[in-house]
Amino acid sequence: MNARGQAALVIQVPSEPQSVSFVATYLGDGSAKASSSSPDAVLITPTGSTVALSVPQTNVLRVPTTLVATITPASAGGTVTFSVGNVVVGSQAVAKGQASVEWTPQGAGAFTVSASYSGDRGTPRGTATNQVVVVAETRADSITVDPVGAAGAWVPGGSVTFMNGTSMALATSSTSNMPVQLAESGPCMLAGNRLTARSGSGSCTVTALTRSGNGFSGAANTYRVLLTPGWQTARLAAPASGVVNRGAVVKLGKPNLRTTAGQLVTWKVTAGKAQCAVVFTSDGTAKLKARKRGPCNIRATAPGVDGQWNRYAVYRAYVIR
């Protein structure tokens, strides 16, 4: 022990990864009693720490950007201090191998960004640097929203028409190559990039956004979706128009058949009542009975829902032979 009351011991580091516990014991003398320290554990790892710094190479004056440091091993603790030149812009504790701060450049030019890791028990300190450029001006971004399968891209500030029940995927892109975020307000549903109309009246507003980045300022476009009544469908059993043999009984639809809007489907012979007839079995199944040779036209209908669904009508033209 030296005159300052300090003692040091040089040990050989184990060759295998492990946790080593140290205890300092003082044997005492005429002026002080014997005592021992609390255990101090040191983690021996096969490699030291590595620090990786992620930051956009081109940044825009007074536009926030995120500095991200990744520490290996991911289990390490400690803190990372971020600096631009000689100016500290923030410190953040390491969590799950990463730490980040937001930096808003206040001057244009070339800068050195650094991330200094404090180290942790068993994980040594480290530093990473990156060279970045800050530009003073940005260009206006341009966003494209192009419905898949449609005739062309939507016009910013314009309107399009969707029928109730219509669903369409929206392909998006931007001149800046920044991600395009979509948002919707109104009686529509937006799941990812798929828009579905859920009403037959009113309108929805779709907004497409990009954040500033890659030398471009952020952009925002809006599009109005005008909603109109949609078409109902039903699971008919009636065969396609064509030839039906005389004497045949053909199934048209199940009992109490309803459309996708919940409307009851009814059947009617519109031409050729002498040649055919719509009959119903005891359970309500609708069938076509072919009586005589000649034309037979039938129609399945269901009422519309005001402001939501159009009237349903399907026709069949048969020839009885």
TrEMBL record:
Annotated Pfam families: Big_3_5 (PF16640)
Domain Bacterial Ig-like: 55-135
Protein name: Unannotated protein
Organism from which the protein derives: freshwater metagenome
